[in-house]
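Chain A, query sequence.
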Amino acid sequence: MTSAGQTGTTEFLAGAGDILTFQVTVTDPCVLATINAPSLTAQTVINGATKTLQFAEATDSVDAAQPVKGYCGERNYVVVDGGTDQATAVTWITVAKDVPSVD
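Chain A, predicted structure.
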């Protein structure tokens, strides 16, 4: 190995004591990502009518830190009935994603 220093070329001879060891740890940032909830407003719909609500797609803590959005993969949305002890999906409301979405 050689190094071109300010006073010329310095040579370093590799020997048994010159072995460099290191460890690489790969961490999935999405495992601990937290979801940033979208801001929604209350809606009222009369029976038989339709209503559309547009909102900014939810992001997560990885999206906030990365220049490329959707790093952690696709998101799917469902509306649930919050008036029960269990989060039961409401089947008469659909959520359609814009194209392109975060993913």
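The first strand starts at residue 2 and ends at 5. The first helix runs from residue 61 to 65.
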